[in-house]
Design brief:
289 residues, eight-stranded mixed beta sheet, 10 strands, 43% helix
Length: 289
């Protein structure tokens, strides 16, 4: 199963798209809220049920002990988003000032996410927030660069508007160069289109010279619920956004599998952090009882 990192040039609905994909997946799924600017899901969609005692920041202290400690902390800081425990969230930062402490945590967290994906069959989505560049490079603090470098897919979320495409256009070349130099290759870069504005998928792909792998409809009521919480909209489970998100998860998985077969990547063995699988499996089984 793929690890998909979602990013944007500006606020384009990365968190909402990540939630929709995670909730719509037909497999166990995880959303890791890794935006250095801070997370919004615990106070929005989760209605404050995920307290400050859970979340990304706590992994930094564990990482200083070692990979095993981070893996255990990771498992204990996940929050279930459904009764069965099949949809999990790693809540993000409460204070953006905490991002500086995570610089050395990102690479090990990337390994944990790949264990979850490759060995436990999870669809993993990383909300990496807004891209920040420093002299043409990914900013070491304001962007979780290691998560992008190790992702199967790096998906730039754009809207079909002139403003969104203009902002995204300036990021494509440096991001692709960074992925070529440090990541799994520039071909891991793709687009997810939010269908707001006059431009259709083929026009967006042509304008940015990047393939559009999937599209989500502009669905303000459901998107507002996912981003801000509140009352569940009528027809939520059958909404266009969630229906198209199910298709999008399949399209992203197919693209990742094609890349994996083409590159003949071996399945990684992460013996040091395999304990996370046992913890997550026990949690999932408990949710089914």
């Amino acid at each position: 199963m793929p690890v998909t990192a979602l990013v944007s040039a500006k606020s384009c609905g990365v968190t909402t798209a990540g939630l929709a994909l995670t909730l719509a997946s037909q497999r166990p799924s995880l959303l890791a809220e890794c935006d250095p600017a801070g997370g919004s899901i615990r106070t929005g969609y989760m209605h404050g049920t995920a307290t400050a005692g859970y979340g990304l920041y706590h992994l930094a202290a564990a990482e200083r002990v070692g990979p095993d400690a981070l893996a255990r902390a990771f498992a204990s800081h996940l929050v279930s988003m459904d009764e069965a425990g099949h949809r999990k969230l790693l809540p993000g930062l409460i204070d953006p000032a905490e991002a500086a402490a995570l610089g050395r945590t990102w690479p090990t967290l990337a390994e944990v996410l790949h264990v979850l994906s490759a060995d436990a069959g999870y669809d993993v989505y990383v909300d990496a927030g807004r891209l920040a560049l420093d002299a043409g490079r990914l900013h070491p603090t304001l962007t979780p660069a290691a998560l992008l470098y190790q992702a199967d897919l790096v998906v730039l979320v754009v809207r079909g508007t002139e403003q969104s495409l203009s902002l995204a256009r300036h990021l494509i070349a440096p991001l692709r160069a960074e992925l070529d130099e440090h990541g799994t290759g520039g071909e891991s870069l793709a687009l997810l289109l939010i269908e707001e504005g006059p431009y259709r998928a083929h026009q967006v792909a042509e304008a940015l010279a990047v393939p559009v792998l999937a599209a989500l409809p502009w669905d303000p009521s459901v998107a507002g619920f996912l981003s801000g919480g509140g009352r569940v909209p009528r027809g939520y489970g059958r909404s266009p956004l969630l229906r198209h998100a199910r298709t999008a998860t399949e399209q992203l998985d197919a693209a990742a599998q094609r890349r994996r077969i083409h590159n003949q990547w071996p399945q990684p063995a992460h013996a040091q952090i395999a304990g996370v699988l046992k913890r997550l499996t026990q949690t999932q089984e408990g949710g089914r009882d």
